[in-house]
Structure formats: C-alpha cells, structure tokens
C-alpha cells in the first residue's frame, strides 16, 4: 500500500469535527489526522480569556455527553461554564397534563447541562493544541476521488487549490454544507413548516436550574437554564417554534413586545419576561441519510442527520456516533485494516443505526403527537404526561432518553489507561 499524506481528513472543525479529532488523538495517537476548517483559527482565543456573552448561542448536553467529555479529559474545564439542568418540566399549554423529572431521583448531579457553543469550541481547541492533529485553516474540502489505496481530497484555500491523499474522508461540516451533495449522498428531508427562533431571555424569577418544555397549539417551546454553573440565576436559553408568518411578525416587534408575546405563549412559571436578546432563526426539518458511508468516506453529525430541537437530542446523538466511529477506527488500526474499508465504515453504521433511528422516532413522534389539536389526541396527551408521573417504569424510560443514556459507547480514557472496551451509558 502506498503511504498517504495523512491517515484521515476531517472536513469541518466545528464541535463535531473537533471532538472527533480529539477523541482519535486520545484513542489512537498513532493516527495522522488532518482537520480542514473554513474559518481561520486564532491561537490567542483560549479558554483563559473567555468572557460569557449574554447573546451567546448554546447547546444542551445530556448526562451521557458529560460522561463522554469526562473520558476525553475535557469536562473539568468545560464544566466551568456549563449550567446544570437539575429539573425538567414538560407540559401541554392549556391542559392539565404535565410530567416532572428531578436529577436527585436518579442519584445524578444533573439531568444535563447547557454550555455556550463558543466556550465548547475554545475548550476543544485548547486540548487539541497539545496533540499531533494538523489543522488547515482557512480552507475547505471541495471534492474527493477514490483511489486504489484510499481517497484523494481536493482542498481550496483562497484562490489556491491542492490535493491531499488519505485512507478516509469524514464529512463533519454540518447539514447546510454542499459537500454532502457534491459527493452524491442522497438525503431524505421532511419539512415541519416551522422555524426555530433562538435567543437568550431574562425573567423576574430564578430558573432554579429547571428546564421547561412547553407544547402549545402553535408548536413547542423550550427554556433552558443558562448563565452561572453554581448560582441559579434569571437567564434562560429560549428555543421558540414558529410558523413562517409568526416568525416574521415576532421579528418585527420591539424587545418589549417580543417579551409580551413570549409571556402569552409560555405563561408565568418563571415570572415576567424582562429581556430578550439577539434573535437568530432557522427552518426546522428532519434530514436523514439512509447510507451515510461508502468506501473511503463517512458522514457524521448534522451532515448525517439533522433533528428537530424539541428534545435537545441532535448534538448528543452526534457525539455518541462519533465515539462509535472512533472505536471502529481503533479496531481497524489494531487489525491492520484501512480506515476507509467499507466493512470498517459499515460496522460503524450498523452500530450507530439503532441509536439514531430510535432518537429520530422519539423526537419526531413528540412533534407529531403534540402538534395535533384534535380533542381525542389532546386527552391522550394529558393522560400520557400524567401517566409518566404515576408510572415509575415509564418515567424512568423517559428520563433515560432525556439524559442520553442506555446506548453503547467506547470507553476512551486516555493514553496508557488500557481502558478501551465498550460499555453502557449508566
């Protein structure tokens, strides 16, 4: 076999691509990994200089994701600005049905966490500085051709183009990139006819480290505790589902009027809404790829599946998939197999498929069930939510889904630990 320029090319250095690169450096330090990222990197932007912004966008991390970040040696730093979710309250607006989850009932410190995306990126960059991972930025992957020994990846940096050979290409540049389509992967997309409005809000009452999932006749909305990891403050991260017209109507309002509209939809569980920050928005779709692998290339993260944010499952699902892929690459190196061999990538796909199918069904069924206003379904929803509170087994199943546990993962504790077996999220 001809020696390639690198072993693995990761297209995209965002949260998914950077996490994969770090996990590979921990599990298989002998691998040569090259990350190609469109945005320039600054060695000066390190966690020590981080100042949280009110308008910072954030991600909900399940308890299972915390376990993964602990294994990567990242959690002690990341937790400095990760707000715990100790309670979850799920309700159906205008009806009596509700269910409540409490981390203490499951002997956990938290059900999950909320962390700023930029903070997570800085923590990952800081760890990656101490690895042998190569970065090419700013640059982008524009094409790929299979070769006898792997793949030949075409790069573009400004006006310059170049190629790099590797055993395998990982597409981790998100669901909106054109690279997936350029390479001929076929997607299935369901448009929910809704948009997610994202903003940080302040309320007169403290969030008390509680997350609220509120289903309304206009669509679901979520409020997640945000701000300090130790003090229950008054800031929450909002995900507000709106139709096209409702979105435009809301965006045209002043901040004060936005708060009034939000109050009318959410209610008074957190007191009065006193401030809403900078709003961003995007259309909501369910996008999946039936065959996310082929010889020499694999899709991960949002490039492979993009979910409705109703249950906060997207990044957590992606993270579990990344760890599954890392374990298959580790085994391939042990068995002297090429990383791009189809049997290696298909093992990853088969192991991850059940997880993403179950997670997609879970998220999608919530939208379809709570999006119906017919009286029989509304009554059934009420009974179901109250039943979760009354039936310990059903409630525990729901809690495990919310915490992102119960799946399979590769244990990656760092070089020299000797701990490389698979284990359950427990």
Our Rg estimate from Cα atoms comes to 22 Å
- The unreliable regions are 370-395, 407-411, 413-426
The CATH C-level name is Alpha Beta
Largest sheet: 9 strands, mixed
What structural category characterises the helix and strand content? Answer: alpha+beta
Which CATH architecture is right?
Answer: 3-Layer(bba) Sandwich
Net shape: globular
Helix content: 25-40%
CATH superfamily label: FAD/NAD(P)-binding domain
Distance N terminus to C terminus? 42 Å
- Total helix count? 11
Mean pLDDT metric: 83
* Beta strand %: 25-35%
How many beta strands in the DSSP annotation? 23
- Oligomer type: single chain
Number of structural units classed as domains? 1
Kindly identify the CATH topology. FAD/NAD(P)-binding domain
Pfam families: FAD_binding_3
Organism: Marinobacter salinus
Cofactor: FAD
Pathway: Cofactor biosynthesis; ubiquinone biosynthesis
């Amino acid at each position: 076999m001809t020696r390639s320029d690198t072993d693995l090319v990761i297209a995209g250095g965002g949260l998914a691509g950077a996490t994969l690169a770090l996990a590979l450096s921990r599990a298989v330090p002998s691998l040569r990994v090259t990350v190609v990222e469109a945005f320039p990197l600054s060695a000066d932007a390190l966690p020590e200089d981080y100042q949280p912004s009110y308008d910072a966008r954030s991600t909900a991390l399940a308890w299972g994701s915390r376990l993964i970040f602990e294994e990567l040696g990242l959690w002690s730093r990341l937790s400095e600005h990760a707000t715990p979710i100790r309670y979850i309250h799920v309700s159906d607006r205008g009806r009596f049905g509700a269910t409540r989850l409490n981390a203490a009932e499951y002997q956990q410190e938290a059900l999950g966490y909320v962390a700023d995306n930029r903070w997570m990126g800085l923590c990952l960059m800081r760890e990656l500085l101490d690895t042998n991972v190569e970065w090419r930025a700013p640059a982008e992957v524009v094409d790929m051709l299979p070769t006898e020994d792997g793949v030949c990846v075409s790069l573009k940096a400004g006006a310059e183009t170049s190629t790099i050979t590797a055993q395998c290409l990982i597409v981790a540049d998100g669901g909106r990139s054109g690279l997936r389509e350029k390479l001929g992967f076929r997607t299935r997309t369901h448009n929910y006819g809704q948009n997610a409005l994202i903003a940080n809000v302040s309320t007169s009452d403290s969030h008390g480290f509680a997350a609220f999932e509120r289903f309304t006749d206009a669509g679901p909305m979520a409020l997640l505790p945000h701000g300090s990891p130790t003090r229950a403050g008054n800031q929450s991260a909002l995900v507000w589902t709106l139709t096209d017209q409702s979105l435009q109507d809301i965006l045209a309002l002043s901040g004060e009027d936005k708060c009034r509209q939000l109050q009318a939809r959410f209610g008074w569980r957190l007191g009065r809404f006193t401030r809403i920050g900078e709003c961003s928005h995007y259309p909501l779709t369910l996008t999946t790829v039936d065959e996310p692998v082929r010889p020499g290339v694999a899709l991960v993260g949002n490039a492979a599946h993009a979910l409705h944010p109703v249950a906060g499952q997207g990044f957590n699902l992606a993270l579990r998939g990344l760890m599954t892929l890392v374990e298959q690459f580790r085994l391939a190196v042990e068995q002297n197999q090429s990383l791009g061999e189809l049997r290696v990538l298909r093992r990853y796909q088969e192991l991850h498929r059940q997880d993403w199918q179950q997670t997609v069904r879970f998220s999608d069924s919530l939208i379809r069930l709570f999006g119906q206003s017919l009286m029989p379904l509304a009554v059934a929803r009420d009974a179901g939510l109250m039943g979760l509170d009354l039936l310990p087994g059903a409630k525990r199943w729901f809690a495990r889904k919310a915490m992102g546990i119960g799946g399979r993962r590769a244990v990656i504790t760092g070089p020299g630990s000797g701990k490389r077996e698979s284990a359950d999220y427990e």
